[in-house]
Amino acid sequence: MNHFEYQGDRLFCEGVALDDIAAKVGTPTYVYSHATLERHFRVFDEAFTGIPHIVCFSVKANSNIAVLRAMVKWGAGMDIVSGGELYRALRAGADPQKIVFSCVGKREDEIEAGLRAGILCFNVESPGEIELIEKVAARMNTRAAISIRVNPDVDAETHPYISTGLKKNKFGLPMDAARAEYRKAMGMPHIVIRGIDCHIGSQLTKTMPFHDAIARVAGLARELKEEGVPLTHLDIGGGLGIPYKEEEPPSPAEYGRAVIEALAPFRGMDLTVICEPGRVIVGNAGILLTRTLYLKQGEAKNFVIVDAAFNDLLRPAFYDSYHGIKPVLRRAGAATLTADVVGPICESGDFLARDRELRRPEPGDLMAFMSAGAYGFSMSSNYNTRPRAAEVLVHGDQFSVVRERETVEELLENEHIPDWLK
Ligand code: LLP
Question: What is the reported pLDDT for 46?
Answer without folding.
Answer: 98
